[in-house]
Amino acid sequence: MSPSCTVAGKPEFYGVGIRVSFYLLWFGITLSRWICDPTLFLLLLGTHFVFACGVFVSLLVSLTTSTELSAAEVYLLLLLVSALALYVRLPYYLWRVVTAFRPDLDCGFYHHHIGLRDRADMPGPYTFGVAETVLMVCLIGTHLWFWSAGVDSNALYAAGRDSGGLPCELEKQAGFVFKSADLGSPGFRAFNAIIIFAIAGGTLVTALADAGWIASEGESRSRRRRRRRRERRKMRDARVGLLRKLQTTSDITVTPTIVSAIELTIVWNDIPDSNGANTAAQLIPLLIGIVLLLLVVIQLGLIIGGMVPESGGNHEEEEDNGEYCHPFSHHTIMYIYLRRRRLTLK
């Protein structure tokens, strides 16, 4: 990038307050998986969904009405919005394929938290699942456009400003692939396109498997359904704990990588005015993220201190009442309708 032509910087899109609020929500969602009551998890997930939709809609409006954003800034915003909506899902899909879609090894299947069984049949989770799926489809489409044609757009390279504040053309913009890479290079574009195609394919295949249209291990659908019922009844703490640890490991591997990609993209492209949090647009989401994370930490502290039970007591009774504490994930919400439809066919 020429020193006389740099990215202008748009803190209203990705200022430090907005970025850190996303980071806090990612960390809070990971911690809240260890709390039996799903209320906090759903609160954090819903808040993150609202934030992500706000940033994504702002990005689409900017791309269709003006040329103020550079390619590096579009890449940064896509990373910010897609971390939880897309990238965190990739290890989950790989795990499902490796385990041949076995229901007893599905990190996202066990959604019977305290009171959640009744909520699964209410319109709220279903509506959220539909909205989350729509966001996923829109993000995948935007990614495919960006990596196929958008990254070469003249408008995205003409968004720079020279020392006098006049528009100029950026020579080169950097992206993250565990080191700095040319954002427009064929290899970097192919790498990101492959990831998006893998996520899209994983979403489709997993949805078909959850709907019962793909039988695991060569079983017929009827045999598979009977086996699933037996395995759900025989679920034990050891396996549930292992799946929860696997989900947590996936989260703490993917999200720090995305954080590094976002922050290094800002540094490598010398994006100015991206570390200030002196406006309401920066402080409001930041304070919301801090408060929600504190609620999760306090709840976990009460559980560790023994002031709040981690589970409700006898597991056999809790399982019968739909109150057995299993790990919960946003993958379950997305497929709640398909799973419910599959259960009604048994």
Automatic annotation (TrEMBL):
Keywords: Membrane, Transmembrane, Transmembrane helix
Stretches that traverse the bilayer: 12-29, 41-63, 75-95, 126-147, 190-216, 283-308
Transmembrane keyword on record: yes
Superkingdom of source: Eukaryota
Protein name as annotated: Uncharacterized protein
Organism: Cercophora newfieldiana
